[in-house]
Amino acid sequence: MDVQANIDTEKLVLDLFEVEGVKFGNYTLKSGVQAPVYIDLRVVVSYPELMVRVSEMLWKASQNVKSEYKSICGVPYTALPLATCISAKENIPMLIRRKEAKGYGTKKLIEGKYNDGDNCLIIEDVCTSGSSVLDTVQALKTCGIKVSDAIVLLDREQGAVDVLKQHGITLHSVMGLNQVMEILERSKKIDCEMVEKVRSFLQVNRFTPSTNTQPCQPNQIKKLSFTERGKLCTNQMTKKLFGIMEEKKSNLVVSADFTQSQQILELVDKVGPHVCMVKTHIDIVEDFSQDFITKLLQMAQKHKFLLFEDRKYADIGNTVKLQYNNGIYHVSSWADIINAHCISGLGVLAALKQIGLEKNKGCLLVAEMSSTGNMITAEYTAATVKLAEENKDFVIGFICQNRLSDDPTLLHLTPGVQLKKGSDDLGQQYLTPEEVISKRGNDVIIVGRGITQSADVINTAIAYKQSAYNAYCQLLQ
Ligand SMILES: O=c1ccn([C@@H]2O[C@H](COP(=O)(O)O)[C@@H](O)[C@H]2O)c(=O)[nH]1
């Protein structure tokens, strides 16, 4: 690094420290991990001179990029104004990645002009694992745009270089966290104790490139208890569910797939003390009545469980809205949780949200299915996970077969569970509770016929509950 670059970096670090862009203390990161240092470059928009300086340094670092590129794209949101400054000053076209689910208009993931096969340079403010860069790369790829390089102002040096390399992307950084620490210690802004604390944090908390493209393995998942995960949630429904699971020591959902309301009520009264949730298919009930719903709600209160209507909404937004709120079932009036396939686009989620959000309801996205030959692809699952991560105000997790997201505030609920591995004669496939929780790293088992068709419903429910909860406890050790 030349002398001038060193001076510029040092000044920038001190200025960022002054405006609290770099902070020390005890911070909970997105992954749920506690960190002694937090970098928050969102503040630079309030200091235009600083913002220009940061963008100039990013541009300087981009001079090391060997590949040609047609445009730049900032990772939303913090790097958006930085990319805008570079684009305007250097006269290089910019692309914008749309982050929110947009249920109307052109539904474009990427705004701006581009051609198939164009190369785009990514601009980012801070890199930890490289996952935010990869999200933007994925969105660009969906539109036929290639990415070979990314520029970041501050690399936290926790493994992003290797993770991105595995995806064919070279990460160029203006500075690393260790360099930031050296500058701040030299300038007496922090003491050597803090430097040591951050260094050992960086050593222990490293992200490594995955060895395959399969969903993350349980041993990669942070060993947080349901209570600890509940504390990280801002979504009240997720928080509530984590609380019930811990209090009742149950990560069991029973699927009450009976066609007579009395059968359901009898089942629910027996298994209620042992489950965190009861799942219904309300449209198979032949004698549906408001009185049945009233009694079901009373049971839910008596035994402290949530009600999940497994309707799997999948139509266009307007229809879904009517299905959720109207008809004879008025699902939104009694079900705490519903679920949806996002096959028809973002309108489904937008519609359910319009009704459910103000009633404090939760939604699970169907990301994988248990049935043999189902047509869900890896790309569809990945897109569903992204949608969930971007809509956590309403989405509480997934219906899935594997752990799909390492976000501790998203729940993974798995149907297709019996005490013995097997299948039925209509394509349903069963895994054991241990396989689902310990090996695959999911949170909750959903059991239907394994319990409902047993001669001893109560003791069978207890056996499933203990098996799933013990598997969860073992993961924590
Ligand atoms: O992929 C999926 C999604 C939902 N289900 C539902 O779960 C229960 C399973 O019942 P079992 O009697 O335990 O087979 C049922 O209500 C399904 O509609 C699923 O099985 N797989």
TrEMBL record:
Q: Which residues bind substrate?
A: 257, 279, 370, 428, 448-449
The UniProt record lists the Orotidine 5'-phosphate decarboxylase domain at 251-464
The yes or no answer to whether the keyword Transferase is present is yes
Which residues are the active-site ones? Answer: 310 (for ompdecase activity), 312 (for ompdecase activity), 315 (for ompdecase activity)
Q: Which pathway does the record list?
A: Pyrimidine metabolism; UMP biosynthesis via de novo pathway; UMP from orotate: step 1/2; Pyrimidine metabolism; UMP biosynthesis via de novo pathway; UMP from orotate: step 2/2
Cross-referenced SUPFAM superfamilies, in alphabetical order?
PRTase-like (SSF53271), Ribulose-phoshate binding barrel (SSF51366)
Record key words, sorted: Decarboxylase, Glycosyltransferase, Lyase, Multifunctional enzyme, Pyrimidine biosynthesis, Transferase
Give the source's domain of life in one word: Eukaryota
Q: Which GO terms describe its molecular function?
A: orotate phosphoribosyltransferase activity; orotidine-5'-phosphate decarboxylase activity
Q: Which GO terms describe its biological process?
A: 'de novo' pyrimidine nucleobase biosynthetic process; 'de novo' UMP biosynthetic process
Subunit relationships: Homodimer; dimerization is required for enzymatic activity.
Similarity-based family? In the C-terminal section; belongs to the OMP decarboxylase family.
Which named protein is this? Uridine 5'-monophosphate synthase
